[in-house]
Structures are given as structure tokens and as C-alpha cells.
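TICKET: design request
STATUS: open
ATTACHED STRUCTURE:
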């Protein structure tokens, strides 16, 4: 096994064994316990087959073990099975089956599934498009701290999609996402400060967020940062640079 694969393999077993009560320590033990019907071992074996860790990558085998675990109510296995249907890996691609398993996971509180279900409702993928339902699931995920859900919830409030338009709520959720390092949220927060949407217009703050997003490689943020510099005074620019350094120290 390659060194990186071995590290990932050990981390996966350690992580999920600790979360689910010491299920197994290697592939052979996982297989024995999975065949005995232990849902956590079935889930881990599915993960190993999906990613080719300790075994030859085999999506059909991954689906088999995810399904056995999911049918016992294992929330992450349900999410994983939903992804396999979504991407057509090991099974025929099926949006409705993807929604079915993603919903089961989301209803148990699994944050990634809640976000994905929100996206499915927002895009009308496997379900009728329903922005209110999208907001509902984004909110559940966002309240658990999932940065992408916080960003999407911020967008929904900004655009008035599925909720009454509310720039202050948009800023609130976008800021939560930005503070976790999500680059798109950092850029959008810069736009809000530049336009005075939900906050007092502040070019120094706008420049700060554009700059932070630019450092992460956001090309549009680089252009907006350079553009806004053209309308800033020297003191505003100095303040923006100080703010960026302070923000970076705080969030490292």
C-alpha cells in the first residue's frame, strides 16, 4: 500500500472507530464484523472500497456495504449511498434514489446530507424545485456550522429566494461562512461592504475581504480589490491592510 494511502486508511479507521465505538482495526476485521451485520463495520468497509484503501477500488462493493449499513439506519452510510446514486458510481445514476437516501441521512441530523438536500431542492434535482425547502435544509446545516450551507443561506437571504429579502441576515450568514475560510463568502462579504448591503458602506472592509479571498486564489477578488483601490484614499488603504493582517492573525 502506498504511504499516503496507508495514512488515509489508518486515519479513516481511527476516526470512525472512535466515533462509533471501536468497530474494527483493519480490513480483515472490518470484513468479519460487516458480515456479522455490524452497521459501522459495513459502513467503513464501504468507504474502503469506494476510495481503494487497503482493497482494490470497487464502487459496486462500496454500494453493497453502504446499502447494508444504510438499511440499518447508519446516517453517514445513507449519505454515502445517496452520493453513489447521485454520481452513478456502482449503480445506475438515479436522482430520486439519491434524494431518498440523502433525506434519510439529513433527517438524522447529518450536516453534509442536510446541505446536499438543500441543494437538491434549490436545483430541482430528484425533487420538484422548492426554495423554501432548500432554505429549511440549508438552515439546519448552517446552524451546525457547515460553511457552504451558511454561504448558500446567505445567498438566499440576499436574493430573497425562499425567504423575504434581508440583507442583514445575508451578511450574518455570509460572515459566519467567511470566518471559516470559505473564499466565496469572503468575496461576497466584500461586495456587500462595497455596496452597503446590510452593512454601512466601507471600502476598507470591502478591500480587506477582497484581499483575503484574493490570497486564496480567487481571481475575481483580485480584480475587485485592485478596482476598489482606485477609489480609496491612502488612509483607507492603510486601514484595509491593517485589518487584513489582523483578520489573518485571528483566523489562522
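STATUS: resolved
RESOLUTION: sequence designed for all positions
ATTACHED SEQUENCE:
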Amino acid at each position: 500500500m502506498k504511504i499516503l494511502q496507508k495514512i488515509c486508511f489508518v486515519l479513516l479507521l481511527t476516526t470512525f472507530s472512535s466515533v462509533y465505538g471501536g468497530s474494527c482495526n483493519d480490513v480483515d476485521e472490518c470484513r468479519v464484523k460487516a458480515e456479522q451485520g455490524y452497521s459501522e463495520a459495513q459502513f467503513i468497509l464501504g468507504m474502503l472500497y469506494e476510495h481503494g484503501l487497503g482493497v482494490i477500488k470497487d464502487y459496486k462493493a462500496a454500494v453493497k456495504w453502504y446499502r447494508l449499513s444504510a438499511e440499518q439506519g447508519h446516517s453517514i452510510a445513507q449519505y454515502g449511498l445517496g452520493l453513489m446514486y447521485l454520481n452513478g458510481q456502482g449503480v445506475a445514476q438515479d436522482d430520486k434514489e439519491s434524494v431518498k437516501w440523502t433525506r434519510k441521512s439529513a433527517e438524522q441530523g447529518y450536516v453534509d446530507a442536510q446541505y446536499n438536500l438543500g441543494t437538491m431542492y434549490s436545483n430541482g434535482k430528484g425533487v420538484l424545485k422548492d426554495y423554501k425547502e432548500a432554505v429549511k435544509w440549508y438552515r439546519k446545516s448552517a446552524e451546525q456550522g457547515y460553511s457552504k450551507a451558511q454561504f448558500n443561506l446567505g445567498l438566499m437571504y440576499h436574493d430573497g429566494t425562499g425567504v423575504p429579502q434581508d440583507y442583514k441576515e445575508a451578511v450574518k450568514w455570509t460572515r459566519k461562512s467567511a470566518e471559516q475560510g470559505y473564499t466565496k463568502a469572503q468575496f461576497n462579504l466584500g461586495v456587500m461592504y462595497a455596496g452597503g448591503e446590510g452593512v454601512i458602506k466601507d471600502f476598507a472592509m470591502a478591500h480587506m475581504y477582497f484581499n483575503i479571498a484574493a490570497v486564496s486564489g480567487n481571481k475575481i477578488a483580485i480584480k475587485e480589490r485592485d478596482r476598489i483601490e482606485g477609489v480609496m484614499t491612502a488612509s483607507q488603504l492603510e486601514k484595509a491592510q491593517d485589518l487584513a493582517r489582523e483578520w489573518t492573525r485571528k483566523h489562522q
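CLOSING REMARK: The radius of gyration is 22 Å. Residues 181-246 form one domain.
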